[in-house]
Task: inverse folding
């Protein structure tokens, strides 16, 4: 689209980034990106992580032949009269990761994204903190954006509403002076989240759940006759890591979070969390309202 128009109306130039979260991309200083910063004493006293695994004791590096767990309402306590043998720290970590993968199947057993959690656990074990991308994540993000039909929350629908209202049909452009209307509309919406009922069983609720940072960019806007077509790109990032609040919230409900937290934060393991990068490109189309003709 030409930058000059038939009148004095200044057209908004594309690509144009119309939204950025206050939280920045690649924030390695975030609380959930901490690694290897806690001692055994801190884990036990501050976070009540006396019992972490049903397979092994990460503090004594001992393997239980048969570990029985007694529930005490708020958590678990292991029987102490069990025979065990000493193992290496690496063997212990490997066992914890295997148990991590096994437990993840309880929250990721249905749908096309169920294998993502296994891939991300593998990446934590072997990726040394490198950013993670996967076409399944991109597909999940796009699906979430397109399926969000909430007129008050969907960034896609809010953008469409602004396009419908503010496109200058006479000059075939979106006026630059109306750019703030786009930014304001998106700011009142909700970023894509994986907190739906189905996300509890397809793995997205645990692999991503919420979004840490996002950029939304309108790449192009084409206006022909009485129709328009906008191409919008979402660049989204989350962290595959746990902060202090995460473990305090979930430690009493699942060994999975106990194992994850200890592998990441215990100074004897210090497996690095990582950035989860997702992107999706969607199209928004519309027609000229009769009242605007």
Result:
């Amino acid at each position: 689209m030409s930058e000059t128009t038939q009148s004095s109306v200044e057209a908004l130039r594309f690509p144009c980034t119309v939204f950025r979260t206050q939280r920045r991309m690649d924030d390695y200083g975030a609380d959930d990106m901490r690694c290897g910063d806690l001692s055994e004493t801190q884990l036990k006293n501050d976070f009540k992580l006396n019992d972490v695994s049903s397979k092994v004791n990460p503090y004594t590096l001992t393997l239980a032949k048969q570990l029985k767990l007694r529930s005490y309402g708020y958590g678990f306590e292991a029987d102490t009269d069990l025979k065990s043998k000493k193992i290496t720290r690496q063997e212990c970590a490997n066992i914890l990761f295997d148990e991590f993968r096994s437990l993840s199947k309880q929250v990721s057993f249905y749908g096309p994204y169920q294998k993502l959690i296994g891939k991300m656990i593998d990446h934590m074990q072997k990726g040394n903190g490198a950013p993670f991308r996967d076409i399944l994540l991109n597909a999940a993000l796009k699906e979430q954006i397109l399926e969000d039909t909430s007129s008050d929350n969907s960034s896609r629908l809010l953008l469409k509403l602004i396009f419908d209202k503010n496109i200058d049909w006479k000059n075939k452009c979106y006026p630059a002076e109306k750019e703030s209307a786009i930014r304001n509309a998106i700011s009142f919406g909700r970023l894509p989240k994986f907190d739906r009922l189905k996300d509890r069983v397809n793995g997205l609720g645990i692999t991503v759940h919420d979004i840490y940072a996002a950029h939304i960019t309108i790449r192009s806007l084409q206006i022909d006759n009485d129709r328009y077509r906008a191409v919008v790109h979402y660049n989204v990032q989350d962290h595959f890591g746990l902060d202090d609040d995460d473990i305090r919230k979930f430690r009493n409900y699942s060994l999975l979070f106990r194992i994850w937290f200890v592998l990441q934060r215990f100074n004897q393991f210090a497996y690095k969390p990582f950035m989860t990068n997702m992107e999706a490109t969607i199209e928004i189309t519309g027609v000229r309202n009769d009242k605007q003709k």
